[in-house]
């Protein structure tokens, strides 16, 4: 499938729930969060039918996301089913890591192709303050288990918050020095509660890392589905990556669409556009489904407008992280 700017669309980020077992300050309010009801969330059969239909049209890569996808009991079974669909080459997962130790072996058995774990700090008290309810130890145990069972292509995602100190940045980056994993710093995007939060630029992070670890050398190979730019550091087992949608816009290479947990197709993270696929999915009307998908992809914007307009008013957990 190609959009009107001749970009090949072969990647879908599939949110399987809007629920999460953390309450990160830049993602959800402390109280009053209103989640989808069970019958509003796409079912296992809806999701498999969706990916089977999209795979016939050239979708090759699927990222399972949320909310926190491991709060949904059938996520591992879903990964197995999607992996078995003709045309699907990679299925990866993004997680906050809280339940990762419990599921790491099952994810390995499901032949998961990659794993993104969100870790914004290695300070237990700060982790609790950011997530409001989370225990850092559980996430680190999950990371250790994922490495131990041999899950491939493990990445740690850290939001580049303005509060990150030089010491904290270096401490997180060092995870890629001692482990065969990649650490990525993600620019704080003005979405939902993140709109009011200060962030650090890629250039600030770059300078801090080089002054502590030596010259960052560009790594040209792709390490997954995403738009990250990767760099090597001396004596590091893994790479350091940056995802900077504002400072280093990568929309010209965008190859993705997003599906929310209630079946809304979004063609851009920022834009409040897309279409509701739920009716076509519930009736398994593939002709209608693909007609809606093609129509939406033709309207996919050339680039985001984070700095110029309000965009989608939903929280990140409601869109799909």
From TrEMBL:
Species of the source: Enterococcus rotai
Binding annotation for [4Fe-4S] cluster 2: 251, 254, 268
Encoding gene, per UniProt annotation: moaA
Subunit (UniProt): Monomer and homodimer.
Residue positions binding GTP: 13, 94, 155, 256-258
Keyword hit for GTP-binding: yes
Record GO biological process: Mo-molybdopterin cofactor biosynthetic process
EC identifiers of the protein: 4.1.99.22
Cofactor note: Binds 2 [4Fe-4S] clusters. Binds 1 [4Fe-4S] cluster coordinated with 3 cysteines and an exchangeable S-adenosyl-L-methionine and 1 [4Fe-4S] cluster coordinated with 3 cysteines and the GTP-derived substrate.
InterPro entries: Aldolase_TIM, Elp3/MiaA/NifB-like_rSAM, MoaA, MoaA-like, MoaA_NifB_PqqE_Fe-S-bd_CS, MoaA_twitch, MoCo_biosynth_MoaA/MoaC, rSAM
Lineage of source species: Bacteria, Bacillati, Bacillota, Bacilli, Lactobacillales
Residues involved in [4Fe-4S] cluster 1 binding: 20, 24, 27
Family classification: Belongs to the radical SAM superfamily. MoaA family.
UniProt protein name: GTP 3',8-cyclase
Pathway: Cofactor biosynthesis; molybdopterin biosynthesis
Gene3D superfamilies: Aldolase class I
Reaction equations catalysed: GTP + AH2 + S-adenosyl-L-methionine = (8S)-3',8-cyclo-7,8-dihydroguanosine 5'-triphosphate + 5'-deoxyadenosine + L-methionine + A + H(+)
Keywords: 4Fe-4S, GTP-binding, Iron, Iron-sulfur, Lyase, Metal-binding, Molybdenum cofactor biosynthesis, Nucleotide-binding, S-adenosyl-L-methionine
The Radical SAM core domain, residue ranges: 4-227
Annotated residues for binding of S-adenosyl-L-methionine: 26, 67, 118, 189
Example GO molecular function: cyclic pyranopterin monophosphate synthase activity
């Amino acid at each position: 499938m190609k959009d009107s700017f001749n970009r090949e669309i072969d990647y879908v980020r599939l949110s399987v729930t809007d629920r999460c077992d953390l309450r990160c300050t830049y993602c959800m309010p402390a109280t009053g969060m209103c989640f989808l009801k069970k019958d509003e969330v796409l079912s296992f059969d809806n999701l498999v039918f969706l990916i089977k239909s999209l795979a016939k049209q050239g979708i090759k890569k699927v990222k399972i996301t949320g909310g926190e996808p491991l709060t949904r009991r059938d996520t591992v079974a879903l990964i197995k089913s999607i992996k078995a669909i003709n045309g699907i080459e990679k299925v990866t997962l993004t997680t906050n890591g809280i339940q990762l130790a419990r599921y790491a072996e099952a994810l390995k058995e499901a032949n998961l192709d990659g794993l993104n774990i969100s870790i914004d700090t290695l300070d237990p008290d700060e982790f609790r303050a950011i997530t409001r309810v989370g225990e850092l130890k559980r996430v680190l145990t999950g990371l250790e288990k994922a490495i131990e069972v041999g899950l491939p292509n493990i990445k740690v995602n850290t939001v580049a918050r303005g509060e990150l100190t030089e010491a904290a940045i270096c401490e997180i980056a060092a995870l890629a020095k001692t482990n065969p994993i990649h650490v990525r710093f993600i620019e704080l995007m003005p979405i939902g509660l993140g709109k009011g939060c200060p962030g650090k630029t890629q250039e600030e992070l770059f300078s801090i890392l080089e002054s502590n670890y030596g010259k960052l050398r560009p790594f040209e190979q792709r390490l997954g589905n995403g738009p990250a730019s990767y760099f090597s550091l001396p004596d590091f087992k893994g790479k350091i990556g940056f995802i900077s949608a504002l400072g280093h816009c990568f929309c010209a290479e965008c190859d993705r669409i997003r599906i929310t947990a209630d079946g809304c197709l979004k063609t851009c993270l920022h834009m409040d556009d897309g279409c509701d696929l739920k009716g076509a999915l519930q009736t398994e009307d593939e002709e209608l489904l693909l007609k809606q998908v093609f129509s939406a992809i033709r309207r996919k914007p050339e680039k985001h407008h984070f700095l110029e307009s309000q965009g989608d008013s939903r929280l990140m957990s409601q869109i799909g992280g």
